[in-house]
Amino acid sequence: MSTVTLQEAKDHLRILDDEEDGYIGGLLLAAEGHIADYLGDGLPDPMPAPVRAAVLLLVADLFENRERQSLGGVGGYQQNPTFQLLLTPYRSSEVL
Questions:
Q1: How many angstroms separate the Cα of 4 from the Cα of each of 7, 25, 48?
Q2: 81, CA 20 to 30 Å: which among 10, 55, 65, 70?
Q3: Which are the contacts of 59, defined by CB distance < 8 A and separation ≥ 6?
Q4: 46 is in which domain, residue-wise?
Q5: Domains contained in the chain, number
Q6: In a domain, 96, yes or no
Q7: 35 compared with 74, residue with greater pLDDT
Q8: Cα–Cα distance measured from residue 14 to residue 33, given in angstroms and rounded to the nearest whole number
Q9: Residue 31: how many CA atoms within 13 Å on its side-chain side?
Q10: SS3 string of the chain?
Q11: pLDDT at 72 over 70
């Protein structure tokens, strides 16, 4: 399986209804696109569990913090270090 499904994302977010399916689908596309760029070689196929977890982590962060621009106006946005820990082994040497 190469991409995270809408149902996987909804399960991760604990969303039971279909009201935000379009929004969550857009977050999935954004998260997978960002991770493909971050890795430098696109998404691996099949997608390893750590990469899938990073997609879900990013989707959840985007969903829960849809209006956040910075952390209290001090220091700007900080990326979750777990994201980098999950993805670093899969990054292309060209982007390191």
A1: 8, 10, 11
A2: 10
A3: 4, 9, 12, 13, 24, 27, 28, 31
A4: 6-90
A5: 1
A6: no
A7: 35
A8: 23
A9: 26
A10: CCCCCHHHHHHHHCCCCCCCHHHHHHHHHHHHHHHHHHHCCCCCCCCCHHHHHHHHHHHHHHHHCCCCCCCCCCCCCCCCHHHHHHHHHHCCCCCC
A11: no
